[in-house]
Amino acid sequence: MTTVSSRDPEIEQRSSVARSFLFVPGDRPDRVGKALGSGADAIIIDLEDAVRPEVRPYARSVIRELGEQPGVPSQPLIFARVNPFGSTDFAEDVEAAIDGRVDGIVMPKFVPGQAATEMDAALSAIESSRAGSDRMPVIGLVESAAGLLGLSAPTGFPSRVKRLAFGAADFYADLRISYHPSGIHTDLAMAALVVASAAQGLPAPLDSPHFSIGDDVGLEAAVGRARDRGFGGGLCIHPNQIALVNAGFAASEDERAWAVKVLAAWDDPSSAGAIRVGDELIDEAMARRARQIIVQVESLRVLGEKDVT
Ligand code: GLV
Ligand code: MG
């Protein structure tokens, strides 16, 4: 929640480059307060799996109260994870998210295609019934076999879907096999999310949480793998994971230096066609990649100068 409208272009840009998204149970306002000062780029107040059904009304009231507090622009972005479209809690969760003036909704069990089109219409109907509410952005959490297969649907990504995320725990349960952080099904899902995000013109997706709390070595490896595969950030389940996730998804100094060197040579008016930079042959595609790295470095500045190289 911020002082500016949640549909402000700056909020959209921050959402697209944010790296760390920290989950916090909606029925724990003490933890919400701590999460706001945790250094996460975004927090996700959970109404779904971390909150038992009987305490969801209370968790919704916690979210509603956010809308009554004056926002502070330096806060992390605030998202609410509602219960899935089609569940009994869905409408009330969405209403609470609107009243809480959160910056967006995380939609669990997201399935692109016809189901997403129907979800979009349901959200619009709730929004039009509430004065002053505009179009809520959505992060689609892909965590089922149907969700994965739906990624190849050419339509069915409503324009309010601004980013995709991977939920490995639900995905493996849906496949009826035990969770493997680096198994073949993880590889398949991760590749599909990156390809679908690029095809739909969405920012780089968010990786699944790393479920071993305190396992910094494993987390660092998982972040490096996700980044190399084209992910732009990760879901966090503990504040101790934030620093590694923020650092791991930022462009490295080597990458930035490479991009600066390549673009200096490429943009030189005397250059033509493919050029040689050091030992590397640089063509248009390489120069395009270099520009993407510089754009990412510059974009991260909107999240705050604190951890940008
Ligand atoms: C996250 O929601 C997951 O299922 O991993
Ligand atoms: Mg899940």
How would you summarize this macromolecular structure in one to three sentences?
With 309 residues, the protein is α/β, with parallel strands linked by helices.
Strand order of the largest sheet: 6-5-4-3-2-1-8-7
Number of strands: 10
Catalogue the unreliable spans. Answer: 2-6, 305-309
Share of helical residues: 40-55%
**CATH homologous group name of the largest domain:** Phosphoenolpyruvate-binding domains
Radius of gyration: 20 Å
Mean pLDDT: 91
Tell me which CATH architecture of the largest domain applies here.
Alpha-Beta Barrel
Instruction: Report how far the terminal alpha carbons are from each other.
Output: 26 Å
Ions, cofactors, ligands: which are bound?
glyoxylic acid, magnesium ion
CATH domain class of the largest domain: Alpha Beta
Biggest beta-sheet profile? 8 strands, parallel
Quote the CATH topology of the largest domain.
TIM Barrel
The run of helices and strands is HEHEHEHEHEHEHHEHEHHEEH
